[in-house]
Every structure is written in structure tokens, then in C-alpha cells.
Inverse folding.
């Protein structure tokens, strides 16, 4: 595994290409519609959540190697379906992600939100106002 | 936008690095725990689904430019939180995704499942057996 | 089963009471926090969706007895966790549901939305305007 | 509101009937297919989760009146779609829930699991074994 291409050397297009080939070889484009893929991402996200369902937020930071391996597989499923949706919609993920991050940078200026999760802050203050 | 780095030239590590910087500049690592991030991915996946909630599977293929732009933003949110989770867990996404795809290739041999979604087939046949 | 209490004779409070007893006998109130229960409902909702993931909207209407039994179990899980959350929050579900339905009745006047799902209509029209 | 029918006096059938009337008056049965309703439940579950996304498990117990009101509305949406799905599938919810609880009672004997969430325990022990 140590010589497999890693995040330093792998482009988004390479991963997208592998997913596209996997789907095409099985003739599964007919099932990989945007509606079905959005459900698939949500289903895999729930399988990921299942690992943390009863843990405290803090304990979710301390995972053993077996838990980490299983969690990695669930995250991989989410990413695979996300790449397939990008393929289906003809979206460039790098540009789409960068555009959304630029929007988030303007929405949450670092000097204003530092150390405060917006919702968290909002909840703390909201019923006192 | 046309000159922004695209999927052909952007590595996973570059995107991961941008997300890590965004989180660190806001001191948000304290909120970006695995439990909270798994919820965040699921929440964004639901926002993506909302665009397809009442559409037929077929109609979800025919999206106008405005719908497509909004859907791209939801997908970007899913990818951003997935990258943040990979950062938090110290996971190499390319290797994790590749390992999961190798598993899927063995689980669903192309010549056996061609044109048949497993669940789909399973449902069609299951109550007749 | 035919003599078990049915929807005609069972009140919300009776179901809430059974769930509360189940949780208390296991000393599980400590895990049944609002945050964890919201995750639990989402996880069970995803298990329900999994049955329909690759089906057309139309085919999801034609389910065999075995599929229907499994789907009933997933729906039961969603309802059980929803009742537990109502217990934890001290919410009267009948009043909460009725209040939300009154709001929906005002928001979607029957004569205006008849036969048109709001999102569906919105999507059809939105990119032409 | 204090005289509105409450959980003590409202049967499941009464709530199901109101939801069925709401849907029929808008001619929305065509959209309320099992597939679409499963997505709708998951979408509403995510909107519920959003209120707890950045809170600690413990803080999610201490909600102000405004937060509680909003959370009640999200829970109502989940219940409304669940009732609509029961209507669509012709399921008796009381019997389905009772059957699932009987199964859970056998699966998690009170004397064996008392004070231990199964997943929680499983995680704590799993990498040491």
C-alpha cells in the first residue's frame, strides 16, 4: 500500500476517471442519476455517523485502528459517490469547491468568527436576547 | 473562472490544504471533531437531496443552469467537510478511495452485474423466490 | 397480531410510555440526548432510503410482502426514536404536529398548489423565467 | 392551544387521518411515493440535526424556549412524513412499532445492557480485544 498513489500525487481527475470507468464497465450509468446519487451520498453519510452515534464529541477523537479503518471505508464511499455525481453533472470539483470556499471566506471573516462556531454562538446567545 | 486550477491539475492534497487552512484560521478545529463532521456531511447531503426530492429519477437528469449551480454548491459542501474529516483523521483519501474501489471491483465483477443494480435486481427477484 | 392494539385504539401517549419504559429499564437516558437522538433518526431514515435507492419513483409503489415487512421495521425505528426525543424534550407530539399542519395549510392553500409539488413546479419554471 | 387534543387523547389513526386529508386535498398522492417520502424523512431529520451540529452532547440537553420551538417543528415534519408513508403503505404504525419494540426487548435484555449503549461498549472494547 505504501507505494500506491497518495494525496500528494493524485489529481481529482484521476480519481474521477477511475470512478467513471468502474461505473461504465458495469453499465451502471442508468442507475447513477443525480437523484439516486444524492440518496447514495446521504446513505453512506449515515453509515459514517453510525460509528459516532453514541460517542461523546470528545471521544470521537480517540478512535482505535479498527474503528479508523472502518470509518475510512465509509468516508471513501461518500467520496466515490460524490465523484460519480460530479461525473454525471459534468462538474469540475476543484473549481466548484474553490468557489464555495471563497464564498465561505467572505461569509465567515476569520477575525470575526475566530473560535466561535456560528451556530454554537447563535444558540448560546439566542434566547437571552 | 476558466483559469482557476481545475480537476486535471489539482491534487487531493492541495484541496485538503486549503480546507485545513480555512479551519485553522478560524480556530475551528475544536468543532471539527469526527462526530460533528459526520453530522455535517449528512446535513449537506440532505440539502443536496432537497433539490431532487419531488423529481422523477429521469427528470433529475435534466437540470437548468440555475439548479445546476445550486447543486454544485451543495456537492462542494459535502466535499469540503469530507476533506476536513480526512484532515482530522489523518487519512490519505486517494489510498482509502482506491482500496475501497478495489474491494468493490471484487464484490461486483463486471461480467456478473453488468446493467443490474444489485439492490434493484434483489428487489425484483426477492419476493418471487 | 390481529388483536394487538392498533392505530384506531392506540394513543400517542401509550406509545411514548412504552418507549420511555424501554429506555429507563436499560438506563439509556444518558445516551438518549437530543443530539444523539437526532443522529439516530437520520441514521434510521437512511436505512429506510436504502430500500428505494435504485428504484424508480414508480417502482417504489410496488413492493412485495418481504420488502414491505423490512420497510415497516425501518419506519418503526424512526418513529421509536422520534417518540424518545419527544419524551426527552417534554414535547406533546399531537399538539406539535397539529400546529405544524396548521402552518402548512396556510402556506400551501389547496386551491393554489393542487396537483403541484412546490419544488417540482419551482424547478420546472425556474430556469425559464 | 391548551385545549387542543394532546397525546393523552389523540390516537395514531387521528393523526394519520389528518395527514391523509392534507395530502388528498392538494392531490399530492402522486408525489408522496415511498421513495420520495423516505427522502423527505431524511431531509427533515437533517434539518433537526442542524440544531445540534456544533453542540456538545451535554449542551444539547439545555435548550432555550426559542430553540425548543424550532426543534419541535422539525420533529413534527419527520412525524408528518412518517405518517404519510404509513398511509401510503397501508401500515398500522402501532402494531409495527410494538413488533419492533418486542424484537428490541429480546435483542437487548435489560439486565445485560443496563447503562451501556451497545455501540458505545463495542467501541470501547473493540480494539483492545
Amino acid at each position: 500500500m505504501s507505494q500506491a498513489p497518495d494525496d500528494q500525487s493524485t489529481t481529482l481527475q484521476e480519481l474521477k476517471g477511475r470512478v467513471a470507468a468502474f461505473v461504465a464497465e458495469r453499465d451502471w450509468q442508468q442507475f447513477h442519476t443525480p437523484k439516486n446519487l444524492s440518496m447514495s451520498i446521504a446513505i453512506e453519510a449515515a453509515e459514517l455517523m453510525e460509528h459516532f452515534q453514541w460517542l461523546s464529541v470528545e471521544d470521537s477523537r480517540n478512535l482505535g485502528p479498527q474503528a479508523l479503518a472502518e470509518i475510512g471505508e465509509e468516508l471513501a464511499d461518500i467520496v466515490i459517490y460524490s465523484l460519480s455525481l460530479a461525473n454525471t453533472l459534468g462538474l469540475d470539483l476543484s473549481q466548484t469547491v474553490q468557489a464555495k470556499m471563497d464564498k465561505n471566506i467572505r461569509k465567515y471573516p476569520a477575525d470575526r468568527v475566530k473560535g466561535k462556531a456560528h451556530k454554537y454562538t447563535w444558540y448560546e446567545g439566542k434566547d437571552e436576547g
In short: The longest helix of chain D spans residues 65-89. Residues 107 and 118 of chain D are 11 Å apart (CA to CA). The radius of gyration of chain D is 19 Å. Chain D touches chain A at residues 39, 42, 46, 50-51, 53-59, 63-67, 117-120, 123, 126-128 (CB under 8 Å).
